[in-house]
Amino acid sequence: MSFASLGLSEEILRAVSERGYTEPTPIQAQAIPVVLSGRDLMGGAQTGTGKTAGFTLPILQLLTAAKPTTGKAPIRALVLIPTRELAAQVEESVREYGKYLSLKSMTMIGGVNINPQIKQLHGRVDILVATPGRLLDHLQQKTVDLSHVEILVLDEADRMLDMGFIRDIKKILAILPKKRQNLLFSATFSDEIKALADGLLTNPALIEVARRNQTAELIEQRVYPVDRERKRALLTHLIKEHNWFQVLVFTRTKHGANNLAEYLIKDGIPAMAIHGNKSQAARTRALAEFKTGKLQVLCATDIAARGIDISELPHVVNYELPNVPEDYVHRIGRTGRAGSNGEASSLVCIDEHKLLYDIERLIKREITVVQVPGFEPDPRIKAEPILNGQNRGGGGGQRQGQGRSKPRTGGGQARAGGGPRTSAGGAKQASGAGRGAAPVLHRSGGRGR
């Protein structure tokens, strides 16, 4: 299948071709005809599947085909995005795909002066890409008119809910025209997402291009067992030993991201932190330097990294495992995109065995364990709970419950694909160690690569 067979105009096809794309991805092949038909859509797609073009291309086509004939052109399409970085990237895609069209777009995000946005709204804006908070600011100041919106897109809807935007979204929906086309995209379909979709969509087409919570096949996933106090040293070792560049490292907290970036810089590795407390200018600069390769490591929290879209990003590192297993899927989805190979490495201490258990249960696979010589966990160290976003390992984190995990073997049953991993609570090891011995991740016994 080619883009030309999807009913797009020559101007749009020319722009798509100039970006080097010849065949649509599965989400694009399915979503574009649905959007062009005018139907509502509920799309399930992980990051990196090409969903942005799946809605921007047909929106450009629809708006070009039915231009207003009189008066000032109103805002006709609204795209709601959870993060500033992602909003900027989506609007950039709109501009690039629509470069040979007369349509105009703008980004409306927080963290920057509102006055230039107000000035831009005095001119022509056909497609508005906005974060909910800043859009509400404009609505309260009556500086934006949404009364002519024909198409609404809720992108990354699951993250919208995670970030607490549901009230803001409902306020915005109440202002929009009742008659409009609605497109909702989400990486996961939780009960909350389904409830939101039920109230928003009318007889929607359902498209799901990957099994829910499935991790990309092109991503090589590894677990590196290490004591909590030695994580930073191991990360430095891996980066230098294997000459990793463009490494996106996830921490649980903003404080942890700052500390880790400072540690790496002192160790001679160019690094910066990106999180919600950073100014928009600082976040934009860090992302730009990371994309060009000037910055070797970017330390990020989940929310800040959600909008990072870098083609062929080679390395993602979970310096700390996330609280929520689904966030692991989102994190490693930053790599292995658009047919490129990628590596996802997780530095796992004894406190995190339960989190790893939950992740593997979600993705329905065991992750290869690689023990780096010289960084073997100390069997005398016991699991500890991670409270209030902090732990002694220097990165910070938060986990509900205690540091003990349930046994990985399901009551002693044999596991496929290698020897069993013991629980953080000290379950009996495969080697026959007595009860109460420290847990060890030892499925593969492989060496660091």
How would you describe the overall organization of this protein?
This protein has 449 residues and is α/β, with parallel strands linked by helices. The chain has two domains: 3-208, Rossmann fold; 213-449, Rossmann fold (3-Layer(aba) Sandwich), CATH 3.40.50. The protein is 34% helix and 14% strand. It has helices at residues 10-18, 26-36, 51-65, 84-97, 115-121, 132-141, 157-162, 166-175, 191-200, 231-241, 254-266, 280-292, 302-305, 325-332, 353-363, and strands at residues 41-44, 77-80, 105-108, 127-130, 151-154, 181-186, 205-208, 219-225, 247-250, 271-274, 297-300, 315-318, 342-348, 368-369. The strands form two sheets. The chain has a seven-stranded parallel beta sheet with strand order 3-4-2-5-6-1-7, with helices on both faces. Helix 2 (26-36) runs parallel beside helix 3, helix 3 packs across helix 4 (84-97) and helix 6 (132-141) packs across helix 8 (166-175). The longest helix is centred in the first third of the chain and has 15 residues, at 51-65.
Task: Write a compact overview of the structure shown.
With 449 residues, this protein is α/β, with parallel strands linked by helices.
List the helices and strands and how they pair.
Elements: H1 10-18, H2 26-36, E1 41-44, H3 51-65, E2 77-80, H4 84-97, E3 105-108, H5 115-121, E4 127-130, H6 132-141, E5 151-154, H7 157-162, H8 166-175, E6 181-186, H9 191-200, E7 205-208, E8 219-225, H10 231-241, E9 247-250, H11 254-266, E10 271-274, H12 280-292, E11 297-300, H13 302-305, E12 315-318, H14 325-332, E13 342-348, H15 353-363, E14 368-369
Parallel strand pairs: 1-6, 1-7, 2-4, 2-5, 3-4, 5-6, 8-13, 8-14, 9-11, 9-12, 10-11, 12-13
Helix pairs in contact: 2-3, 3-4, 6-8, 14-15
